[in-house]
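2.7 Reproducibility. Because tokenized structures are sensitive to small changes in the input, we list the exact sequence used for DNA-(apurinic or apyrimidinic site) lyase, including any N-terminal residues retained from the expression construct. No trimming or masking was applied before prediction.
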Amino acid sequence: MPEGDTVWQAARRLHEALAGKVLTRSDFRVPKYATVDLAGRAVLNTIPRGKHLLTRFEDGLTLHTHLRMEGTWKVYDAGERWRGGPAHQIRAVLSTADRAAVGYRLQVLELLRTADEERVVGHLGPDLLGPDWDPERALANLLSDPARPLGEALLDQRNLAGIGNIYKSELCFLLGVTPWLPVGALPADRAEKLPGLAKRLLEANRDRPVRQTTGVHRHDLFVYGRAPRPCLRCHTSVRVADQGDGSQERPTYWCPTCQPGPAPAPGSPQRWREKYPRRPRTP
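Resulting structure tokens (single pass, no recycling of outputs):
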């Protein structure tokens, strides 16, 4: 699932392409909105909210989309060939006189009144890349369930919005704890710096085409996508396992030496092999 920095980039692309312009065409290829026509409406802006995208139009209407695992918005010049995938994967088209924004594989797409946006994003915690960022509130949210594994708490968008599997794994590595550590057992000094560290990582990457957390050009990430290769710090084999209730794939990477503490039960089928190859971020 895209992380907050990826969604921030998508919002910027949509905003730069559409904001202040009048739609010449709209096409929603989902049954509920198949007959909706927004042509003639001006686009006001597109903003990210955690992992959600809100594109606002005049007359108080908002298009809410979420990329989930495979979704993406592509922007093309007028007359340019669309290259985001086969036509049957297109879910939305927003065109102006000179640009076309095409949404592929969008798992969430709905039109709502702008006044009702809180219905779809009001449950989110402080946004790491948003104007509502509040590190104290984010930390309090994380610590509200002290028995919950840290990795699961970080992924819960009600605690803080914008972290996905990649940043979850990288943050836990930088904090020197396993993602299975109960969040209440996180040493106080590390808990205190967690919100600021998370924000710095996302801010540093929101303008980059390739995400990097190491500061080393040859190695973009410390642990995510590296199993069973050696840890960049201690050379122990990086491990991977699913985390959570199994309803979704939650690949979690960690170094058992640099991150001592709780781990999955021995014999976990993903523990010793690379099941989740790292994917490049789609621009």
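The helical segments are 4-18, 118-121, 135-143, 150-155, 165-175, 188-205.
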